[in-house]
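G., the chain you wanted modeled:
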Amino acid sequence: MFIKQYITAVFFILLIIISPNVYAAAAGSLDITMSMTSIACIVIFVFAYVLVIFEEQLHLAKSKPVLVAAGIIWTLIAWQYSSVDMSEQTVEAFRHALLEFAELMLFLLVAMTYINALEERRLFDGLREWMVRKGFSYKQLFWISGVLAFFISPIADNLTTALLLCAVVMKVADGDKKFIAMSCVNIVVAANAGGAFSPFGDITTLMVWQANVVEFTEFFALFIPSLVSYIIPAVVMAFFIENKKPNNIGEDVELKRGALRILCLFLLTIATAVALKTAFGLPPVLGMMLGLGYLQFFGYFLCRTLPGSLARKRALAEQAGDMEKLERLGSVVPFDVFSRVSRAEWDTLLFFYGVVMCVGGLGFIGYLSIMSDVLYNGWNPTAANITLGVLSAIIDNIPVMFAVLTMMPDMSHGQWLLITLTAGIGGSLLSIGSAAGVALMGQARGYYTFMGHLKWAPIIALGYAAGVATHLFVNASLF
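Predicted structure as tokens:
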């Protein structure tokens, strides 16, 4: 954890000190990169991020420090510019950063709402109990959970997928600490790898798609590199899995009315967003908000038809003498879309706002131009993108990717796909490197730990290197 603090601070400060073009790098009209006020902005951001790192120990929601930091940073910038009667530039820059965040937030909000609706309709419970009842061995469960994580995360995002499959593993292998720990590592690696080849798989890939850098179908060029980055560590870890069966008995899970239809609506929503973006160039958020309308109308339909549906089911249960089912029917409540919206990860969304606005402020000062000059002019772009992928395991991939998109270096299409890949799979190197890993440390507390993940870091790094090499070979024509 102390490594993360150190590198987060040094990463931004050293880039300022070592750049030979400090005074030519400011993004705004004023050159304020070396002013005490601007340096204070860096210190504030680093301090806020250290508080985020220690979220679990401090019991402090990660959104709080970055929200305060964003407000202070933009206030200091505004003060600097207003002193020379140029405050309108600050206003325009802030609105631009806010618009970028608003599009991403609404997109994520719709996706989270659908996921919460599917969870409330017990679709994920049904999947979990199906795996329990099948009586898979530990090795089979290890591979099934990993493969499912790889293929579900491109649709449901890596965080949601990891939480879902971690719950499955903990249910099936109740109390087996070694197996749960290894499976969690496997799930994190698989979910992050799967999320790298889809705009819906991770916040970073969504950011790249929203920025019109990579088109929807072009992400699929990363499928084979992503698969390689997952398969290599999974094959090695599988040798250490005992080939025995867990002793667990499943329970009946009855899907709530409309579960499969909501899943179809979610897929239709994704298709709508892709179609509008491809055909007319409209922001994907428009298609997602239209999809939220689909869900609202379907929720209205479920509410209006609930009394008739309950009456039919109650009559059948009374005929069969199924008292348990009658009791369950008595506790049924109407489907409420807005209750699903309220269950979205608001702390995550607000954290995302804080990070975007903090990095946007530092970019307006000029520090991201300095970073771009150091990394992409002083270094080879391939080396820069691979290094940023490794740093994303330490700093977090969201600020890294937002910084790259703000810098917008002049790179080939293959290089943009490379940074998309490395930012996605690089977070698997450490448990704290991705939202999926951080979430599982909380969900599987006592089983999945930082040190337990670190033990497999060399093998995961081998998969990272192999995935990068595969991309450089398979997609060589794009460079």
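Residues 429 and 458 are 8 Å apart (CA to CA).

Shout if anything looks off.
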